[in-house]
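Incident log, support desk, overnight shift.

02:14 A customer reports that sequence design results differ from what the structure should imply. Their input is reproduced verbatim below. On-call engineer (initials T.W.) acknowledged and began investigating.
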């Protein structure tokens, strides 16, 4: 092989290595549209096999690892999800499916992490940063958790994992030598401060497997008040796959909720966590924004696409993603230019 060919091959390999090392995705979700098909009657909010879901067109949405801020994990497991959506003029339901070899629905032990999924909607006009929004561009996130789903059937606790455990005493519990003390056994809320403050994670019972939260950038995730938790979820793992339904009324009176109207187009993004891979918090697979079209005829006067919570959307979050990608693109173009110049050199 002559020097010119060897140099060209070396530059091509260097570009490929750079793409691989920085986990630059070669496919995005731009151009995808999720259509919420309009149907009559009740939505199948807890029936994954209902024939009604066949009226919705499924789309495959690519995911890639969150690689903007720490903590990050570049080798996340879930590479894509399949999404469908339905509405009946009153409620919206989104079905998300993804492959997962293991069912991780317990968070009792510190070494265990849950499977989870989320759908995200912008609360401001335009599209803020697709990872958690940004300052001046809040997002409404519906976060489904596999352990919360399991808790609806039977709450998991230490005695679930260790059925033969023994405790000699629960201080301040009103129960007489209980095998396991329940929150209801404590009359004084001072001994259950998290529960007394309305912390959903300390709740003794689950009304939903979805936490309704808002965010305006990394580190700003905030749960809606207990009375504002109005999103329902239903998820089942079977044969190496999770299928999860998110549902809520199309319109919401909550000031930090996304609202939807027939005949309108919105934006939606997705995220998935694989607990078996140790994924949690910012260590997740995320999509870019996808269009969400609510099928039907817009009412008159037409509702706003999303209630504007701020005057404008700042673009600092977008820069976090665009600048590294632009730098990588320039580096690749530079390598390609050098390869072209070397290809014009005479063979010697």
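02:41 Re-run completed on a clean worker. Output:
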């Amino acid at each position: 092989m002559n020097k010119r060919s060897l140099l060209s091959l070396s530059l091509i390999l260097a570009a490929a290595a750079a793409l691989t090392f920085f986990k630059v995705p070669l496919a995005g979700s731009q151009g995808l549209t999720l259509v919420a098909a309009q149907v009559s009657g009740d939505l199948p909010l807890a029936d994954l096999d209902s024939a009604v879901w066949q009226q919705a067109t499924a789309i495959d949405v690519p995911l890639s690892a969150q690689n903007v801020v720490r903590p990050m994990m570049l080798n996340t497991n879930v590479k894509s999800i399949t999404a469908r959506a339905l509405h009946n003029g009153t409620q919206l339901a989104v079905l998300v499916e993804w492959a997962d070899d293991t069912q991780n629905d317990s968070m009792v032990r510190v070494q265990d992490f849950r499977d989870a999924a989320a759908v995200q909607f912008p609360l401001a006009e335009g599209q803020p940063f697709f990872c958690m929004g940004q300052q001046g561009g809040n997002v409404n996130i519906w976060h489904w958790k596999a352990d919360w789903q399991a808790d609806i059937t039977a709450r998991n606790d230490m005695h679930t994992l260790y059925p033969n455990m023994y405790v000699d005493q629960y201080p301040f519990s009103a129960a007489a030598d209980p095998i396991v003390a329940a929150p209801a056994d404590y009359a004084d809320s001072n001994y259950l401060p998290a529960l007394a403050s309305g912390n959903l994670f300390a709740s003794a019972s689950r009304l939903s497997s979805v936490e309704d939260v808002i965010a305006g950038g990394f580190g700003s995730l905030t749960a809606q008040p207990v009375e504002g938790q109005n999103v329902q979820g239903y998820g089942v793992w079977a044969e190496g796959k999770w299928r999860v339904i998110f549902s809520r009324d199309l319109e919401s009176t909550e000031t930090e909720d996304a609202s939807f109207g027939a005949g309108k187009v919105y934006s939606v993004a997705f995220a998935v966590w694989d607990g078996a891979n140790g994924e949690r918090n910012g260590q997740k697979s995320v999509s870019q924004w996808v269009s969400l079209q609510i099928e039907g005829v817009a009412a008159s006067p037409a509702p706003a696409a999303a209630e504007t919570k701020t005057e404008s959307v700042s673009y600092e979050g977008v820069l976090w993603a665009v600048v590294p990608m632009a730098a990588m693109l320039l580096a690749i173009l530079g390598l390609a230019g050098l390869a072209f110049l070397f290809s014009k050199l005479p063979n010697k």
